[in-house]
Every structure is written in C-alpha cells, then in structure tokens.
Specification:
Layout: H1 24-29, E1 35-38, H2 48-64, E2 67-70, H3 81-95, E3 101-102, H4 118-130, E4 134-137, H5 141-153, H6 163-166, H7 169-177, E5 183-186, E6 193-198, E7 202-207, E8 215-217, H8 225-235, E9 240-244, H9 250-260, E10 267-271, E11 274-275, H10 288-292, H11 295-311, H12 324-330, H13 334-342, H14 357-363, E12 374-375, H15 378-390, H16 394-408, H17 414-424, H18 451-458, H19 463-476, H20 482-496, H21 500-512, H22 520-527, H23 529-542
Parallel strand pairs: 1-2, 2-3, 9-10, 11-12
Antiparallel strand pairs: 4-5, 5-8, 6-7
The protein binds one RNA strand through α5, β7, α8, α9 and β12.
Length: 543
RNA sequence: GGCCCGUUCUUCUAGCGGUUCAGGAAGCCGGCCCCUCAAGCCGGUAACGCGGGUUCAAAUCCCGCACGGGUCACCA
C-alpha cells in the first residue's frame, strides 16, 4: 500500500523530461514537418478498419514527406504484449506500410511503448499538480459511483463533485500523510468552451461546464489512455492526429490537456467509421454472425469456409474478413486491399477508382475525406483486387500461387505453372483460387468428378458413345494442341449432327472433372494426351 | 437522457448556388461474344431524409424536425 502511494508527494518524484511547449516564434517561422502516428493496443489481430485508419495516417505522412510513427498503447500490461503485437506488425509489413519511428524500430522519441513511459507521465502529472491544473481527488470510487447514480436518477448530467478541493489545508495534509488513496483529475475550466478545427469535420465546439474532471492517474499510480496519449503526442511532436470518429468526443478533454501541458494541440482529423454495408454499425469482430449474412460480405465468408479448411487455417470464424490476416491468407494483393481501403471514405476525384499506392500517396489530402460512415463492400473490394491480379506479371503470379499448392500437396514447377496460369487468366482473383483447378495438379486417378455434373451427363443420351468416340478422336490426333483438337471436335460433332454443347460437356467432365473451367481445348493441351485418355476411360466406367 | 457527429442510387462516391430533370464505380438486369465459367464490350436499372426559409436560382447556404451513429469509466 505504502509503496503504491509513494507518488503522493510530487516533490519526491524523479524528474523526467517534461513535454516542452514549442515556442510561438518557432511555430510561426516555418510550418512544422508533418508527424503522424498510429497507436494500436496489442489485441492479437489487426482489424481491417484500424488498418484503414493507420493507412490514412501513413498516407498523410508520405504525401507530405513527413514522419509516420507506430506507437504501442499497452497501458494494460495484462496480456503478452509481444505476442499480441505480432499480427499487427505482420499486417503492416504485408501491406508494405513502413514506419519511420516506433516499435521495433526506435527513434529519437523512444521509448514507443506506453508501458515504458511511466516516468514521463509521472513528470507530467507532477507538473500539472504543481501548477494547480490538476488535483488529487480523495473520494473513493464508491462515492463517485454514488454521485453518478444520483445524477442519473435525477436525470441530471453527471459532473463530479470537487470535494477534495474544498478540504482545508490541514485535512488535505492529513489525508496525504495517512497515505489515503487518490486519483489525479484534470481541473476542467468549467467556464470555458473548447473549439477545434477538425480537418474533416470542420469546427466543433464543446462547453466545458457540463463535463466531469477526467481522471489522469488511477489510485494505483497507473495512467489513463486519454492522458498518456496526449502526453505522448505532445512529447513526440505529433502534428496531425488522424483517427476514427469514435474519438471525436475525447478531443475536448485532450485539447484541454494539450493546453494544460503548455503544448499546441495538433490538427485533428476524425475519419468516419467503417461499417457493414447496409448497416450503420461499426464493423466489429463481435457480431460475425450478422456480418456473414450481409449480402456484400457473404461471399467473403463463404469463401473462407471453403478455402481455409483446405489450408489447415480453420474457417471464417477464426479468420474473418474483419481481420487483415484474412486477406493475406486468402491470397489478396496488398495493392488491391490498399486500393479498396483508400476508397473507403476518400476519393481522388469523380471517376478514378483504380489507384496504385504511388497514385494514392500523390493525391491523398485530408480535405477529401468523407464525413459519413462507409460500408465495407466485399464486391467492390473483389473487383479492385481482380483488376490488380489481372495486371500482375506472370512471375509474381507464379510465386504467389506456389505456397498454396505446396500447402495442399500439389507441388508444381515454374515451367508447368507458366503454362497453366495464362490459361486460367483472369479467373484467378486471389492466389488461393488456384485450389479450384485441381485438374492441372492431381493425378488422373485422384481427380474427382463433380457429382452434379456427372448426374447431368448420365441423363444425356448417347453420353457413353460420345465419350468413346472422343477417345478415339484424341488417340488418332497428331497432337493435342488446342489448334488441332478444336477443329477436329467441331468437325466430328458436325458430322454426327451433334451440337457442340452435347459434345463438350462430357468431354469437359472427363478431362477436368467439372462442368466449368478454362477453355476446354486449352485444358486438354495442358493436361496432355495420355492423361486425357486415361481420365476419359475413368469417366466411361462411371457412366 | 446530456453532449457531439452524420444523412446523394442497394453499396462506395462526385457535387462546395446556375454548365446536373445529379456524374463515375461496384452490384443487379438484358444483349453481344461463346464449349462452360470468367473477362471484355454495349445497353438498362436506381438517389439528393422531411419541413420551412434565404435567393432570380439550392443537393449545395440558414433554421427546425426525423432518423442513424458516437460518446458520456479509476477501458483503450
């Protein structure tokens, strides 16, 4: 107990650098170089909405030639911070969003973990206490709760009662001497109001008369986010705080804190939420069940349930579209994700949709951020992704697809893939889509015939005879290049008075095991004569 | 409930008083192409929350209302 409260007397506190106020002249002579930060707490995963916020911070820094900082808000040190941080770093690295200062990198304002900055917060508390801008509140939590309950019952807005400020100096000294627990609260100037000029929302004003004095330091000596965050932003010379709209209300307190600390508040930019399309609720990991049923997201969930089990990665519950990792594991391209994220609440002009990173960086400005919330549309994402996958050079496609093939035990060499991938062409939207093309990778006997397609062929008249004739045709063909087989099959169909559909369907099923896929004659050429014949024989036997 | 924010097609958005009976993209529908699927091309679909002002003129400015959201912790 005693140890816990050794901070009771400010004069015994260690000194640490106190955030310094920038001088008026320095500010006026030249605009400060932009410094933005993203400050995640170690949650064990990276939320797609958080990623978009981080992206905007990064973009603003890159657009202005400024500095982007990754700071860790780990004031609750319960969990294993290092482990819970890995997915976050991983997401940044995967997307290619680098940071100039911060966790795992260091920099002139180190440390960048809040858990390591207690001395700095302590010094700031001391300063505020000495200056009378903050005060010790000895009211125990029960009393505060009681006050709050009473205010609520009376339908009054709750404002804390400053009993500790009414104490006589003697009583105050007595409480201190006895080591009575206390919290430190900011003394809110209740006769003032706070106005900010938000870069996105414009002028926003709050009346300080109706707000409680926020707690800065808990009775156990730890600090609150709102306080630590401002101390850090001031100390790290952050010029632009770009963050989600949910923090807008915090901004009043934080502005007051910047002022109290003698620091010029940075420019705030509160960006809109990402929601589920058709809803106005924040996209949250908590209501996955609702999300999976929203039309614009359903496909993403369904695909996860199809693909992730094959890869031994669980399903859409363990790896859902609200997590950045979903996209990485599914085989999306960073440029596709970034393009989609950029278009969520920001636009370049009235028509540009396809943008690479360089274009986005070049044009990104805060004033073009939209004010209203943005629904995360899986279809739109998919279409952007499809574009970028389509323009990806072949060697990169090969490299992207290989890990998936290895994972399911269908290894293929580059030469083989260099033939197959151009055939699959734009049907490959994400790398894991390669898993849909078993026909090019599995052995003839391992190839499964699609049940539905098989049923359909069975009901088709003369299916067996057609397959038998096609086998003969293939056997006698000089080669199985598309340019050879295509006309041969056409001629034969014509000679038999058959429509191409009647001929192609069984042939496709036999050769690829499915009723859909790439151009049939290209498929035949890729699979090769022997395999095609072998597979057709198998089909004959099953018919 | 107090305070704060938001509201243009199903979705993402353009629009900052006239050049817009509102433009682009995704979706959806139809057509072309075609051995299927995908892509591509062509065409179609569909919006300024409501009510008052201001103005010669309003999606655009002002005021109400409604609806949605956020936030009100010794959480982050």
């Amino acid at each position: 107990m005693r140890e816990l409260h050794r901070w009771a007397n400010p004069t015994t506190w260690p000194t640490a650098p106190i955030p310094t106020a920038r001088t008026e002249t320095a500010r006026m002579t030249s605009p400060r170089p932009v410094r933005t930060r993203f400050a995640p707490s170690p949650t064990g995963y990276m939320h797609i909405g958080g990623m978009r916020t981080a992206f905007f911070c990064w973009l603003w820094a890159r657009h202005t030639g400024g500095t982007f900082i990754l700071r860790i808000d780990d004031t609750d040190q319960e969990r294993n911070v290092s482990e819970a941080l890995q997915p976050i770093f991983r997401a940044f690295r995967w997307l290619g969003l680098d940071w100039d200062e911060g966790a795992e990198k260091g920099g002139p304002y180190a440390p960048y973990y809040q858990s390591q900055r207690s001395d700095i917060y302590r010094a700031a508390i001391k300063k505020l206490l000495i200056e009378g801008q903050a005060f010790k509140d000895f009211d125990p939590p029960e009393v505060v709760q009681q006050d709050r309950a009473e205010a609520e019952a009376a339908k009054r807005n709750y404002v804390n009662i400053r009993r500790s400020l009414e104490l006589t100096p003697e009583k105050f000294a007595e409480l201190e001497a006895a080591g009575t627990p206390f919290v430190v609260r900011l003394l809110v100037p209740r006769d003032q109001s706070v106005t900010i000029h938000d870069a996105v929302r414009g002028e926003v004003t709050w009346d300080c008369g109706t707000m409680p004095d926020p707690v800065l330091m808990r009775s156990n000596g730890s600090f609150l986010y709102n306080f630590a965050s401002v101390v850090d932003d001031a100390a790290m010379e952050i010029t632009h705080i770009i963050r989600a709209e949910e923090h807008l209300t915090n901004t009043c307190v934080q502005t007051l804190l910047f002022r109290a600390l003698g620091s010029e508040p940075p420019v705030f930019a509160h960006i809109p939420f990402i929601t589920a399309p058709g809803s106005t609720k924040k996209l949250s990991k908590r209501d996955l069940d609702k999300l999976r049923n929203t039309p614009a997201l359903k496909k993403l969930f369904d695909r996860a349930d199809e693909v992730f089990p094959k890869l031994g990665l669980g399903d859409s519950k363990s790896l859902s579209p609200v997590m950045v990792e979903y996209y990485e594991k599914m085989g999306y391209l960073p440029v596709g994700i970034l393009n989609a994220l950029a278009r969520l609440g920001w636009s370049l002009d009235d028509k540009t949709e396809i943008m690479d990173l360089e274009t986005i960086v070049k044009h990104f400005t805060l004033d073009r951020i939209v004010k209203s919330s943005a629904g995360f549309d899986g279809d739109k994402l998919q279409s952007l992704q499809a574009h970028w996958m389509n323009v990806l050079p072949l060697p990169e496609k090969i490299a992207g697809v290989k890990p998936y093939l290895e994972q399911v035990g269908w290894p293929a060499d580059d030469t083989h893939l260099a033939k197959i991938l151009p055939g699959i062409a734009d049907r490959l939207k994400v790398f894991s889509d390669i898993l849909d093309y078993a026909e090019f990778f599995v052995s003839d006997d391992a190839l499964a015939f699609d049940a539905k397609a098989l049923e359909k062929i069975r009901t088709q008249p003369q299916a067996r005879e057609i397959v038998a004739s096609l086998k003969k045709l293939l056997t006698e063909a000089p080669d199985v290049e598309a340019a050879t087989i295509d006309p041969l099959v056409h001629q034969w169909a014509e000679s038999q008075g058959l429509k191409m559909g009647q001929v192609v369907a069984p042939l496709r099923l036999g050769v690829t095991g499915r009723s859909v896929g790439i151009g049939l004659f290209d498929a035949i050429a890729l699979i090769g004569k022997d395999s095609c014949l072998h597979r057709l024989t198998r089909l004959e036997q099953t018919l």
